[in-house]
Amino acid sequence: xxxxxxxxxxxxxxxxxxxxxxxxxxxxxxxxxxxxxxxxxxxxxxxxxxxxxxxxxxxxxxxxxxxxxxxxxxxxxxxxxxxxxxxxxxxxxxxxxxxxxxxxxxxxxxxxxxxxxxxxxxxxxxxxxxxxxxxxxxxxxxxxxxxxxxxxxxxxxxxxxxxxxxxxxxxxxxxxxxxxxxxxxxxxxxxxxxxxxxxxxxxxxxxxxxxxxxxxxxxxxxxxxxxxxxxxxxxxxxxxxxxxxxxxxxxxxxxxxxxxxxxxxxxxxxxxxxxxxxxxxxxxxxxxxxxxxxxxxxxxxxxxxxxxxxxxxxxxxxxxxxxxxxxxxxxxxxxxxxxxxxxxxxxxxxxxxxxxxxxxxxxxxxxxxxxxxxxxxxxxxxxxxxxxxxxxxxxxxxxxxxxxxxxxxxxxxxxxxxxxxxxxxxxxxxxxxxxxxxxxxxxxxxxxxxxxxxxxxxxxxxxxxxxxxxxxxxxxxxxxxxxxxxxxxxxxxxxxxxxxxxxxxxxxxxxxxxxxxxxxxxxxxxxxxxxxxxxxxxxxxxxxxxxxxxxxxxxxxxxxxxxxxxxxxxxxxxxxxxxxxxxxxxxxxxxxxxxxxxxxxxxxxxxxxxxxxxxxxxxxxxxxxxxxxxxxxxxxxxxxxxxxxxxxxxxxxxxxxxxxxxxxxxxxxxxxxxxxxxxxxxxxxxxxxxxxxxxxxxxxxxxxxxxxxxxxxxxxxxxxxxxxxxxxxxxxxxxxxxxxxxxxxxxxxxxxxxxxxxxxxxxxxxxxxxxxxxxxxxxxxxxxxxxxxxxxxxxxxxx
Length: 799
Fold this sequence. Notes:
Blueprint: H1 2-17, H2 36-47, H3 75-86, H4 100-120, E1 130-131, H5 134-145, H6 175-193, E2 201-205, E3 224-234, E4 238-245, E5 260-266, E6 269-276, H7 279-288, H8 290-298, E7 303-307, E8 310-319, E9 347-354, H9 363-368, H10 379-395, H11 401-414, H12 419-431, H13 434-437, E10 438-439, E11 452-454, H14 457-468, H15 475-482, H16 489-501, H17 503-516, H18 537-555, H19 563-566, E12 569-572, H20 574-580, E13 591-594, H21 607-612, H22 621-633, H23 659-666, H24 670-684, E14 709-711, E15 717-719, H25 721-729, H26 732-748, H27 757-768, H28 774-783, H29 785-788, E16 789-791
Antiparallel strand pairs: 1-10, 2-9, 3-8, 4-7, 4-9, 5-6, 5-8, 11-16, 12-13, 14-15
């Protein structure tokens, strides 16, 4: 639009001063150049006001009443406009569109104006009182006690906001929830401290969903296949009994044709071995049925072993036999399924202790008991040292006498039994304390309501460690924070890079990527077994592991984050390679391979992404298009109206229609086309990938060739995944900005608001100078005002 104005101005000037002009001798006042606001208002009036005005009020916007000369007065509205225009969402498909150069100029001017206004009057926002989610709780228990717990067994599922489970505003607490935290604290400390006279208890374990028992399980001895391995916490020294279940069954006999050797291991050492299957077992089951099954399974019951207290890895597995061609009458549709007709471990029960003989040293007790009283007179001093050491780590700051008063009172109450019981009582009180369960960032005293302030170094340390590790600060970070050194940019950067180099950051960043990309949904989809017989749990696991390794190869290796969209490599094992049509890959080990099919490049070609954006029985172009808009472009479509008509599935007896044909009828309504005209072309470009991410050329039902063609909202023609990726990569900064917004949400524990967008844009601009390396984005977030500062409450409250 600006180019148009300049051209017109030049033409007028030439006309006025041309020798042939009749106005040559006329004296004119010099005309003042139009302001940027008035120039952009012309574009707004021409292309936008016809829908967004006082009468129509489309989307609640009335541009005819808004002043472009004072954008900051309606910054929330103009940030929405920027987002829509950057994503090509407006004007809607089919409407008259301004030249792209004019749109780019308008967006650039708005962003510059909004950024300047934000710099003059910054708003860092505020994070609500932040409860540890259950994953962070489990990590904190591991850091404090060296104890691995399944937090899902103790605590309910956390609510989510924008796909993330660490957003403070939705981590609510009810009275029943607090009861569960108190119960969890009691159980955790009971396990950690142990008991010299523990009563026998039974713990049952089963192989995880999708375990392929025809192959080697990581953590079990080489040369074995199948089974399971668990870490079991033994409460005291003593005798324990192990029961291996599910090996033999009557009725339809499976897995008994050949003799197999079963072994039980503890910490990798074999402590039991026996056989199952073969001619004799088959004959007995055939002739005696239930009594024979009971006798066979009885060989693997009540296996008695003396075990010391503490965590030990217990494994059950089979000695591997050679692979042989299947003797099934109809061979499985599933590729790479290994051996057929083999026994499988159904369960492992650990029962005990019997005849407990005390408690030896355990990792948990070593962390708790940093001293031992030499006499009764030393007990209180030692208890105080234990409690204060534990409380400093749990509260993530130095402790005061006031902090220790309640735990010491609990200690004295429990000490009536013995010293260990008193310590267990005191530490239980600490784990149930709000000072442990919550991250509270208190404002300085006498701070004015609604003013900005820098959070303390200790609060900064917690933000850093929970952002990059999902855990509490370690001693080094706490010490630096306590000394007030995190205000030094050089010290801050050194600590950030140390945390990022730690192996704990790898799993944390994978957790971020999975939540950003909506990957938890991968466990909720069960493809129709009739339509997709070659899908199984091993393929689901392969999808998950591929994405994990791919994301880590970019984020943990500190590469250009745009590689997430364009990388020409992936990670596969034999099962996934067969699904993708990649030859010459053997075995279960994942390895990096260079892709020859550009349709598989980057995130958009990954089976996991294609699976979570489909339904159980068919593809879903709307889901795929919406996923791209929300997670890649950063312009999520509006939710459908409540009375929207459902998808009309093909009916038996009628001529089958393709998904495209059915969707064409649906979006023919103008009210639907506003969103579908943007989403559908993106989704249809991936129609060659079926619901489980397998490439196809024909529609299953209609029998016609797949049509992946379409036109994006900005008029760009596309015909498949390659074209979509190229279109998106024309503006790589758009993807980087989307990722930065998601990462900032994850880092802050709150959603990104309109007043955060100037900070987001600044991070992206600065990261561009470093080739969009992931560490540049992380450092940009950590240095930003939203991360380092906080706005005080508008009330007299101090939090």
